[in-house]
Structure formats: structure tokens, C-alpha cells
Amino acid sequence: MAVMLLSLSPLVAAGSANVTPAAQALPALINLLNQFQQLHLRFEQQATGPGGERQQGDFYLQRPAQFRLESLDQPLVVSDGETIYEYDALLAQLKLQTFDSLDSLSPAKVLLMSEAELSASFVVTFDSAEGATEGFVLVPTKTTSLIAWVRMTFAGGVPRQITLMTQSKMQVSITLSLVSLNEALPSALFQFEMPEGTDVIDDR
Questions:
Q1: Does domain 14-183 have CATH number 2.50.20.10?
Q2: If we measure between CA atoms, which residue out of 122, 87, 128 comes closest to residue 107?
Q3: What is d(CA 95, CA 90) in angstroms, rounded to the nearest whole number?
Q4: Whole-angstrom Cα distance, residue 200 to residue 204?
Q5: Three-state DSSP class for 58?
Q6: CB 148 within 8 A of CB 137
Q7: Per the omega criterion (within 30 degrees of 0), is the bond before 159 cis?
Q8: What radius of gyration, in Å, describes the C-alpha atoms of the chain?
Q9: Measuring CA to CA, which residue among 156, 158, 153, 134 is closest to residue 39?
Q10: Residue 139, strand partner residues
Q11: d(CA 103, CA 45)
Q12: Beta strands in the chain (DSSP E)
């Protein structure tokens, strides 16, 4: 799908990141991520290169594994904690996959990762351009990854920017604005009711 916040294979130029290695970067990132159990963010995504376009929408997160991604011109994506539902209303088509099969490079997955999962998937360092504890650069541990790196910046303990770069130098910037933090979210946000006549592709 096009929205990289949830992309099953997301996307920055590796040499452009001003990175300072630090043993405390991973614990610092985990500490920030653990500050929220429920989160509602609005996002604006801009991709560079041919076909780059601007997209906007809402992202809801509830630990340990629930989220919802809404955008006017993109499929609705819902995780109930076990299954991910990707529903394209225009095509009347629903794709199903398990939460565990979601690509570890997806920013939505990263925001829900444990310390062990992050350590296995990325080398995490501080981004010195963003100060000691507010910016991080995550470099995939797999040398075959299509992603060069992921940069995450925080403000007041809340994610404010996620930038991703492919090995082919396509960059995607996702700007995030806070709507609510640790306020109860309706359970219906993380449930999906399939409309009649929907074509189902089950990859679980």
C-alpha cells in the first residue's frame, strides 16, 4: 500500500544522517515508546521522486498490537492484535494477514516493538542533529533490506516525524501531530466488520 506509516515494505540518503553511536540509544528509544499505551496521531506524508504524492490521515495505536490507519484515498488498515485487515472500498476487496507477518520495517510495527524486537531488527543510534535524546536513526540489521535507514524524532515524548529512505534513494517524510495521548480509545476502532459482497484474500 502507498501509506508508508503502515507499509508492508516501507522506505532515506544514508550518508545524510548525522549519527552519533551510543550504547544508550536503544534504551532511550524504548523509554519514549513505553510512555504511551494509547495514541491518536494525525499524519501528513510526502514522498520524493517520480510519483511522489502527499497523503493525510489518522493513525490510532493501542498496545500491545492494535492500530488503525485511515486515509481518504487509501485502503483502511485495522489490526485487532492478531489479524491485519486491509480494506479497499473502491475495489470491495479485503486482504488479511497476521500481525506477526507485518514487515518489521513498517513504522507502525516499530512503534509497537519491544526492546528485544527493536534490537533484532535495527542498529539504533542517536541522531545528533536532533539533540541527545529526541532523535534516533534506525539502520536495518538485514543487509538485504530495501531500506537504508529510518529516522524518528520526538517532541515532548511523542513521535513528531518519521523519515524513511530506500536503498534507491526514494525518501518518504511523515509529519505527525498529536490528537490524544493515553486517553481511552473506542474498542470499535480496532475491529473490522466486513461489508457484504467483499472479495477476501486471506494470506494468514
A1: yes
A2: 122
A3: 13
A4: 12
A5: strand
A6: no
A7: no
A8: 16
A9: 158
A10: 123
A11: 19
A12: 19-20, 38-47, 54-62, 66-71, 76-80, 83-88, 93-98, 122-127, 135-140, 147-155, 158-166, 171-181, 199-202
- What are the cell numbers at 176? 505527525
Find out whether 125 and 19 touch, Cβ atoms under 8 Å.
yes
From first to last of its 204 residues, what are the pLDDT tens digits of the chain?
A: 345 555 544 433 334 455 545 578 999 999 999 999 999 999 999 887 666 678 899 999 999 999 999 998 889 999 999 999 999 999 999 999 999 988 877 888 899 999 999 999 999 999 876 555 589 999 999 888 888 999 999 998 899 999 998 888 889 999 999 999 999 999 999 999 999 999 999 999
Which set of grid coordinates corresponds to residue 77?
488498515
Give the other-Cβ count within 10 Å of 191's Cβ.
12
Longest Cα–Cα distance in the chain: 53
162: cell is: 518519521
First to last CA, the chain: 17
- Residue for cell digits 497523503? 55
Query: What's the residue count for the chain?
Result: 204
C-alpha cell at position 72: 481518504
